[in-house]
Hints:
The protein is an alpha/beta fold. The protein contains six helices and five strands. The chain has a single domain, classed as 3-Layer(aba) Sandwich (Rossmann fold), CATH 3.40.50.1970. The protein has a five-stranded parallel β-sheet, sandwiched between helices. Helix 1 (16-28) packs parallel to helix 5 (119-134). The chain is globular, with a radius of gyration of 16 Å. The chain starts with 5 loop residues before the first strand and ends in a 6-residue tail after the last helix.
Amino acid sequence: MAQPLVGIIMGSRSDWETMQACADILTALDVTFEAKIVSAHRTPQRLYDYATGAAERGLKVIVAGAGGAAHLSGMAASMTALPVLGVPVESKALKGMDSLLSIAQMPGGIPVGTLAIGKPGAINAGLLAAAILALSDEALAGRLADWRAAQTESVAENPE
Length: 160
Ligand code: RP5
């Protein structure tokens, strides 16, 4: 198995439907990743072990998706110097506004790069993780440029 460079973590199995969009982008760009369920509230020791060991295990970026009282990304960021990207998963009760604010409103000093609510945020977290890695990987930068060019190409000029 190739060394994973991106660690996708999520608070619950129910977040996978959203976070799979991040995994799909990384797969399309040939970026190695792992995906794990790590809950800030239900498995705090797993979160501690994951975040404190991430850099040593060779991960370069962490993408953390959670919904509701979404403390996963912030807690992970408090325990690693790796870049942490937070994806607010859409919650049933508040449509992800709770998730968004929980992730975005970090105290100064512990940054989390906060993406949009739901699948667009998961997709963009994958693209942003790839862009970070592409700073030191020319081949990946080329694949990312091709992906973006293909997207541009796919947008028709006329609505019909
Ligand atoms: C959060 O609570 C998870 O990230 C998930 O988005 C939400 C609901 O979790 P489940 O009740 O579906 O396990 O911790």
